[in-house]
Amino acid sequence: MKKMVRLLAVSLIGVGWMAGTSFAETGAPGGLVQEPLYDVYLPNPAATTLSTPSGWGAWGNTIFIGGGITSPAPYSDDSDGAATVGFGVGNPAENVGLQISATVNDLSERDNTSYGAVLHRYLGHGTSVAIGGEHLFRDKDESDAGESYSLAFGHAFQGVVSDTPGASGLHGSIGVGNGRFAHKSPLDVANGKGERGSYIFGALAYEVFAHTNVILEWSGLNLNAGVAIAPFENFPLGVTLGAADLTDNSGDGVRFIGAAGLAYQFN
After folding, report:
1. Could you tell me whether strands 212-218 and 255-265 are parallel, antiparallel, or unpaired per DSSP bridges?
2. Which domain holds residue 180?
């Protein structure tokens, strides 16, 4: 049976960005940049988005794994769970980084899988750009969510003090995409929500405590808000908890979204 995995896939995209970006790139601030002539502040180790691309990606022989949940699923009384695994290679400061991931979109239907890819480049002064595709090579008989492609920029504001050494206390991202950023689900259309989103997405993440961000995000279809935590200083675990569909622009009500990711970088 087909299931709507749009919001669930959203949570898992957050896992991939969180695990790859937070711990591969900013777990040791300055390790990506290595510019001794001036200080550059990067995002802190917690996630900077809930569901949208952040402009960063995994790199440098990093592997990551994560899981996510949305409860309830859109237009359903049931919860949905999914899982993702991936890796990052390359060096976005010297040339480019490449992140590849595979996602089980519905844990109750393990043959419902898809793939994602992100090519990203560090531009300097705390700014990164990424081009990505998600929900690629899916089985159309198992999933009714289509492919999505995006271009995103992320920036760590250099003048905002953080409790994390070498990190900025404020991160912003903005991007444009098709698919889930632009098209509403058939159930949204059937319930009079319209067919189109904004195509544009973005997020702001502000550090309230060390390794803890509050996040406000526009997904292209709706408003989300939540918190991201990297609870252990020397263990690469990240958690995001949030509320999705805060307006009536899509979906049938506010729902809980959560994700957790774990990453490891090989030397």
Report:
1. unpaired
2. 6-265
Read off the CATH number of the domain in which 88 is found.
2.40.160.40
Question: Do the domain assignments include residue 57?
Answer: yes
Transcribe 45-91 into DSSP letters. SS-S-SSS--S----SSEEEEEEEEEESPTTSSS-EEEEEEEEEEE-
Tens of each residue's pLDDT in the chain, 267 residues? 333 344 444 444 444 444 444 433 333 333 454 443 347 899 999 999 999 999 999 999 999 999 999 999 999 999 989 999 999 999 999 999 999 999 998 887 777 889 999 999 999 999 999 999 999 998 776 666 789 999 999 999 999 988 888 899 999 999 999 999 999 999 999 999 999 999 999 999 999 999 999 999 999 999 999 999 999 988 899 999 999 999 999 999 999 999 999 999 887
| Cα gap 24→118, rounded to integer Å | 14
